[in-house]
Amino acid sequence: MVWQSFFLIICSQTVVFAQKGKRKIFGSSQPVHSFLGEDVLLPCQISEAVSAVNMEVRWYKERFNRPVHLYQFHRDWPERQAREYRGRTELFSKELQHGNLSLRLENVQILDSGIYSCFAEDRSWYDEGKIELIVGALGTQPTIFLIPLKNDSNILGCRSTMWHPKPKFVWRDQDGRNIQHLRNFTGKEEEEEDRDGFLTVNTYIGIKKEFNVYSCLVRGRIQSLDWESKMHISITFTEISDVAFTLPVFLIIFQAHMLLDIILDPDTAHPKFIISEDCKRMRRGEEWREVPDNSERFNERRCAVASEGFISGQCYWQVDMGENRGWALGVVKASAERKGNLKMTPSLGYWVLWHENNLVKALTEERTELFVNVVPKIVGVYLDYEERQVSFYNAAIRSHIYTYVGMDFDTEEKLFPLFYLWDWRSDLTILAVSKRQYRLINPNVGKGNELLYYIFFYVHKRFLYRSFCC
Prior knowledge:
The chain is mostly beta strands. The protein is about 5% helix and about 40% strand. Strands 20-21-32-23-28-29-30 form a seven-stranded antiparallel sheet, with no helix packed on it. It starts with a helix and ends in a 14-residue tail after the last strand. One of its GO terms (molecular function) is signaling receptor binding.
């Protein structure tokens, strides 16, 4: 009670003596975007760059008396922070003298999203700025399902979970048309939020009982989140004699145009690499192997590329890095030099994510160090040829790591998946995407009159439509 009374007195004195002046506090006019598990900087600056060492600096989200971070009387007060932020916030103490009030927030969670206030005051002045933080999470693979009706129509549904913010759904037909723009389109969306802030979203459309190919595309709304999850479904309704219901057979291709059967090209591998018979695993050996020194082979950089390159479309692959402490992944253009101890940078035709001793970097011209909460062991690589960008993801926790944009290569020049390894403790493995078959029973159909769903996942190019990657 004594402390509360003292605090009330201090607050009342502040109201009496502190007034807004010409100095201003500036936050950010644009939202700050981050991804689940990353560290983020919330910018805040006093306009005249005066010292804030002797001020009170208070960051809060919704309630002034529940600070996200509190600096007062020349020290931080972690015991007065909101419990969910303890141990995750930091001011830049050396920057306070320059009026820099920016806050570092570590290991961001979905519930961290919202409007933050950056407040500062001394005896004669106070002000605050606003910053919006949007924490993104890349949702799960979407699931397409059918709700049969008695008339000549059915309802097709698409479900995806673990998103934030709410993603955008697009339904297309076999001709690639957005059917949501058609005059006779009927559809709706539903969403549920769990206690951690993740969204489960369902979208439904009405379809006729006729052959068609439907695509459910789910896209994140955060600008830097360029992942697109797609399902293609081919529905054939066949009348079965002596049976009083229609048996639909589903051919669902989940991300089929992106998930490819990538294998290593031994003719490009550094002579110290040992590649498995199926060309899916690679390990660094101790001995220099006697191999032909062809123009495609890396002779100094410990690299190898895939056997096939891409000249169009959108493609996705995953690599398990095992326990290796030094590795790199990315893409390289066909015309890039492969001989010598070359720099793997975009200007030389390399777009690479690098890991060494728990440090993750994008190999830009000046090297970009990336602050990741968890060093990825399974890395997803998503290439969009037409958009000229390649993105990297921690596939285990579905978080974005980095995106190269504006890639410079000639039209129809091949881009090859690139693999680099300097550690010898375990294999680098290209994860195989298998063909799986599921038998599901529709609970809406009575016993003895069961509706069977056969779902096949195809991942090889030869099974896909022409419009798909490569």
